[in-house]
Amino acid sequence: MIDLSFIYNFFKYTELLKQLVIRDLKVKYRHSILGILWSILNPLLTMVVISIVFSNLFRFDIENFAVYFMSASLLFSFFSEATTVAMTSVIGGASLISKVYIPKYLFPLSKCLSSFVHLILSFAALLIIMFSTGIKINYTGFAIPLIFVLILVFSIGISLILSSVSVFFRDMTHLYSVLTLMLMYMTPIFYPEGIVPEKFKFIHDFNPLFYYVESFREIILEQRLPSLDYVIICLIMSISALIIGLYVFYKRQDKFILHL
């Protein structure tokens, strides 16, 4: 069985976790004139470029393309950023791990939480676009935190797996960049889901990010609560990823020091 002492350590080291998150945010915006405002400006500028390219040049017939794109881009960007930076977090914390006792899972967890703060700030950019295009959030908006929490938990689980594997297999960072690129094209971020041929529908069926993105879009674009089937799938994937991530991390963490 997994030692549940990490639950005690979580509360014991809450202040340390907070400081790690603050440090990550400070490092992210160090030497930046606009600082944290880039969390809002960056998705806005990206949206402008993508909208010009795909709504005009490629002429995808998608209503409210800017919101369609940004709603998916925010979730995918969060997952990609969180898991990518968390993957090398244990390696990056080698100097601390070798000197004092710190629960090692705090490193990938802090990376995911700092990326989550960035997601919340970037959500403001989506709200700006929604209001400027006449889209208002109704009562279904109360379901948005649920989707955010589910993809956060999923990202933490995947991050725990990646961060533990990368300690022993450093090439994982290069392989994962290819995987995230593949996931980006497998997820209907800037193209309509309907253009995918029937024989390739499995691309979405087996893409975990598809269900988070579509659930979020149902709230934002269709102004209704997300499909119960999709929410259940997201819940199962998030819990499963977290359990597997904790198990893999726990089984390997005692050997980290030998490879750092």
UniProtKB/TrEMBL annotation:
One of its GO terms (biological process) is lipopolysaccharide transport. The chain crosses the membrane at residues 33-54, 66-91, 112-135, 141-162, 174-191, 230-250. It is found in: Cell inner membrane; Cell membrane. One of its GO terms (molecular function) is ABC-type transporter activity. The keyword Transferase does not apply. Keywords: Cell inner membrane, Cell membrane, Membrane, Transmembrane, Transmembrane helix, Transport. It is a multi-pass membrane protein. InterPro entries: ABC2_TM, ABC2_TM_bact-type, ABC_2_transport. One of its GO terms (cellular component) is ATP-binding cassette (ABC) transporter complex. Residues 34-252 form the ABC transmembrane type-2 domain. Belongs to the ABC-2 integral membrane protein family. PANTHER family: INNER MEMBRANE TRANSPORT PERMEASE, TRANSPORT PERMEASE PROTEIN. This is Transport permease protein. The lineage of its organism: Bacteria, Bacillati, Bacillota, Bacilli, Bacillales.
